[in-house]
Write a structure and sequence with these properties.
heterodimer; A: alpha/beta; Rossmann fold; 10 helices; 42% helix; 24% strand; B: elongated
Chain lengths: 256, 247
């Protein structure tokens, strides 16, 4: 479980996050949603320590990450896996080497054991046999899957995914969402996904945090979000014609 | 004021760079790879530049020797001293600042804008130490080798040019090369090279690591890296010459 208490962040005098308090539950896919530029990614980057928060505390299973020095943070970070928006694979390494990298860096496993773990992770994301490809030879969806394989290589307790579906077609997006959900349940991880994709919300939103103007605006889950009356949340959820159509149909059903 | 701020950030960066590597095996492997990328790949340009510059120095010196009071071996002596004292350590390092500096800044800058550095940090890797220390090691270890190679080729170039132009004989040229040779000049040249190598890679890494934005900003950082490391070389050259040759 990850707990955020009173987190605030500003850049050059402009406040981006205001006093965020939230709990990301274990074994669930916790979504952070909101319009572009509202502070979703900044919140996630503050939680993992890529940005230093101006105020507040971040607790990873009661361990206060905010007060830790570099070495202590490094230990916690070995329990974190992160899938970046652009996958952030190391271009000079093959798919297999990307997955092996954290294992070689932080474990004392033998070569054979590392190879076995990398093969297992790649198989888990349906990329068996693609070991020797370079990231530039992979499609966007494949790169995301390699990113997930690398993120789970160290058996992380916490998984962060920054817009895992950006740039992917709807079908591949569902594959990625399903993979994130399955892995979360399988390894009992605390997963935090940043997205503005309503399809993802409906597919995997066990817990949803809506960020608006840098503030915690609303929280709930995929079932409550579609019926909520909060004007900002409603505007976000029913922004597309497709969702509006669904709402009309739902209202018609109810009136019958 | 901005310069002082940047300089402070640069020193703070160096403090993190010179910490204990997370895994020594990776550090040695990366250092060897960097020796190939930064050092061995620079051999052709260093060879080409050195040979032709040596030839030009020798021909220019020969063409200026009008006084009959100057001994014939002066051409060899001037080629040797200008090559060892200034041309190889300083001019070649300025050229390397362009080649290696832009390469290092754009490589690290691209890793920054594509979030590869963030990925390293998330894994718990000290990204500055992991990326920059092997490059600095490669530069300070291999640049002196490159400069010794450059000195030899420059003097060879001078000899070939004089021989082809029939301006002197091999014996006289070698006599000039050996005349008044001061071994301390080699120490001075290699010390300069060591410092210049460190400056080129550390300054370029600093600009690459702190890139914000996209590909345009990577290009801008790359240019800034070359300009700043060239200026740093010129200033360090002046200080080291004062300290080592005149004090």
């Amino acid at each position: 479980m990850i707990e955020v208490k009173g987190l605030s962040k500003s850049f050059g005098g402009q406040q981006v996050l205001f006093d965020i308090n939230h709990r990301f539950e274990n074994g669930k896919v916790n979504l952070i949603i909101g319009q572009s530029g509202q502070g979703k990614s900044v919140l996630a980057k503050c939680i993992v320590g890529l940005y230093e928060a101006d105020a507040g505390e971040i607790l990873f299973d009661q361990r206060n990450f905010s007060n830790m020095d570099r070495a202590e943070r490094s230990e916690i970070r070995q329990e974190i896996g992160m899938l970046f928006q652009g996958a952030a694979l190391f271009d000079s390494l093959t798919v297999e080497q990307n997955v092996m990298f954290p294992l070689q860096m932080f474990t004392n496993l033998t070569k054979a054991e590392i190879q076995q773990r990398a093969d297992f992770c790649l198989e888990r994301v349906n990329l068996a046999g693609r070991n020797k490809l370079y990231p530039s030879e992979c499609s966007g969806g494949m790169q995301k899957r390699v990113g997930i394989a690398r993120a789970i290589a160290m058996n992380p307790k916490y998984l962060f995914c920054d817009e895992p579906n950006s740039g992917l077609d709807p079908k591949t997006s569902i594959v990625i969402d399903k993979l994130i959900k399955d892995i979360t349940v399988e390894y009992n991880m605390t997963t935090v996904v940043i997205t503005h994709d309503m399809n993802s919300v409906m597919e995997i939103g066990d817990s949803v945090l809506y960020i608006h103007q840098g503030k915690k605006w609303w929280e709930g889950d995929k079932n409550t979000i579609i019926t909520d009356q909060n004007p900002e949340v409603e505007a976000f959820v029913y922004a597309s014609s497709f969702m509006k159509e669904i709402r009309t149909q739902m209202q018609q059903k109810r009136s019958l | 004021m901005k310069f002082l701020q940047q300089f402070g950030r640069y020193l703070l960066m160096l403090k993190v760079v010179f910490s204990k590597p997370d895994k020594w095996k990776f550090y040695f492997q990366k250092s060897i790879n960097e020796i190939e990328l930064i050092g061995i790949n620079s051999l052709p340009i260093v060879a080409l530049m050195s040979t032709f510059m040596g030839a030009v120095i020798a021909l220019q010196t020969a063409s200026s020797m009008e006084s009959p009071l100057l001994p014939d071996y002066t051409v060899g002596f001037i080629t040797q001293s200008s090559t060892i004292l200034e041309f190889s350590p300083t001019i070649i390092c300025l050229i390397l600042a362009g080649k290696v500096g832009s390469n290092v800044a754009s490589e690290i800058g691209t890793m920054r804008v594509t979030e590869q550095i963030d990925a390293l940090e998330i894994m718990g890797v000290n990204s500055l130490n992991f990326l920059v220390l092997p490059k600095i090691t490669a530069a300070v270890v291999f640049f002196p080798v490159l400069i010794i190679f450059s000195m030899a080729l420059s003097m060879l170039g001078g000899w070939l040019a004089l021989l082809v132009s029939d301006l002197t004989t091999t014996e006289i040229y070698i006599l000039g090369i050996r005349a008044f040779f001061n071994p301390f000049h080699i120490t001075y040249a290699l010390t300069k090279t060591f410092v210049f190598g460190f400056l080129i890679v550390s300054i370029s890494s600093f600009y690459g690591y702190h890139v914000k934005g996209g590909s345009l900003d990577v290009g801008r950082a790359s240019t800034q890296a070359v300009v700043s490391s060239s200026i740093a070389i010129l200033i360090a050259n002046f200080i080291l010459t004062q300290l080592m040759l005149l004090s």
